[in-house]
Amino acid sequence: MADLRDLLKVDPGTLRLADIDPRATPGLPSKRTVGKDPKLWSAEAVADISTELGSYQEKLFASAKEGATNRRVVLLLQAMDCGGKDGTVRNVTAGMSPAGLKAVGFGPPTKEELSHNFLWRIRRALPPSGYVGIFNRSQYEDVLVVRVHNLVPDKVWSKRYDEINAFEAKESSDGLTIVKVMLHISHEEQKKRLLARLDDPTKTWKYNPGDLAERARWTDYQQAYEDALNKCSTEATPWYVVPADRKWYRKWYRKWYRNWAVANLLHQAFGDLNPQYPPPDFDVAAERAELSKAA
Ligand code: AMP
Ligand code: MG
After folding, report:
1. Which of 77, 88, 104, 106 gets mutated to test ligand 1 (max ligand atoms within 8 A of its CB)?
2. Is the pTM of this model over 0.90?
3. What's the CATH class of domain 4-293?
4. What is d(CA 27, CA 30) in angstroms, rounded to the nearest whole number?
């Protein structure tokens, strides 16, 4: 299979979000290749990939035991409201051990966070060696919502792209792999999903009356996303755009392309990292002999 990363990676300076169809399914194999409906196939593939991610995660954890390496992985998700970040996290991490995961969501900064540089809370949230971190929103909010709402002057936010690039470059040279994914939905799809939140009492809690004011600024947000992705997609830490509109027509097909693509991107990053179980730093035969003699 072609490397999905090549299909979804943002080529710095050239991304136009309007040119990416949120209903597209780049890289999804055809029915002929997989021998069944690709929707069903991808939903099953997510479960398999997630199990493999769990195995990679364990190796990463084991290999970092006693500070042997500083390797860490972060899956960073950004999206407009209703873009599907929570569902993606649930599906992609299903095969992983919660003990080795550090999942963090970033909301409006607290008073304390505001008294520091915007990257302060991000640094504190980075996973320790051997852990997998999930960022539900991130440092990018500081050039998205902050820019759209003029929460700081232009000259402050406009310098943040470089600050983010410097931060990510430093961390990635210090063992951090960051997989940055934007879940790309359409304006119409967001409306459907917001309505679904109002119609379903089990989803109403996710609705926030402020979401409508944000939706009204759709174009500004798309522009802010485009700039952030164009300026901060680098060799070491590229951005990926995953079309995320696809709906289901059977419950078990839910958001099949999105979950498959994100799981795949993370899997490929782990493949490059190729973590290995560490060799024992003690004499296994001697331990076995002693244990056999013991009561
Ligand atoms: P949710 O993900 O629905 O819980 O919403 C989190 C909210 O926090 C979103 O409206 C974000 O735009 C907002 N948020 C996250 N980071 C920042 C930030 N640095 N400054 C202002 N608002 C933020
Ligand atoms: Mg929300």
Report:
1. 106
2. yes
3. alpha beta
4. 9
